[in-house]
Amino acid sequence: METTTPGTESVGTPNFDEEILESTINEKYNTQCWISSESVGENLSYEFLTMPGSSPKAMGHQLLVYDNPEPSIPRSKRPRAQTAVSTNDTRGSGYFEDSKIGMASYVLGYATGPGPKQVVALSFIPESGGRITTINPDLSNLKVGISHVSVDYTLAPGALPNSDGDYIGIKEGQNFVDLYWGNFLWWNRVTSNDSSGTAYINNTSILRGKSYLLGYYKSDYCRGDLAVACRFSVK
After folding, report:
1. DSSP-assigned beta bridge partners for residue 33
2. What is the CA radius of gyration of the chain?
3. Summary count for the chain: helices (H), strands (E)
4. pTM score, two decimals?
5. How many CB atoms lie within 10 A of CB 133?
6. pLDDT digits (tens, 9 = 90+) for 59-99
7. 38 phi/psi in degrees, rounded to 5
8. Which residues contact 17 (CB under 8 A, 6 or more apart)?
9. Distance CA 170, CA 157 (A)
């Protein structure tokens, strides 16, 4: 896992009017977290699924609980409870001993780091134990141009991608574990502070017939902050 700037940053704005090549997302993974329905009226219990190749405990992943009336991460509030992920397995479960779910609204955030700016997935229990809402990160609408790549991203509401230092990076290959090490072919910061938007990389030269990995990283140039990724190719 690297914790420094991942290589040469993309410069300039791509020409979105250039020719778009026929590309396909062949596989996709994302970080997920959900609250067990049995939590209502009991201790808050949860399950999570992280990216292939991640080591949640070693990478400092955290779970944060907030009192909040809507499904978003309240950046100005202190969490009512917080705990570190205690396993390096990519899938796990647990519960908060001191956080019983009562009649208020609650948000559980799964963070790839120590605080709210690293929250990549959330679950929300509305007041009076209504239907649980789960929001996980996603990538869609991949477009590969002659000299740029763009992709639509979706994050948990409350995320501030540009302010948080989020970025996307591309490597050649098929193994998602490779996104945790080595240099990118191309990378760029996310330029918007919207929790859903479009990220792009300029000055690329994607080759037909090769397989590429695109990863979305949640802040601070740490490879452990990989939130969602896809494998794609150009025909």
Report:
1. 48
2. 18
3. 1, 17
4. 0.92
5. 15
6. 999 999 999 999 999 988 999 889 999 999 999 998 887 66
7. -70, -5
8. none
9. 25
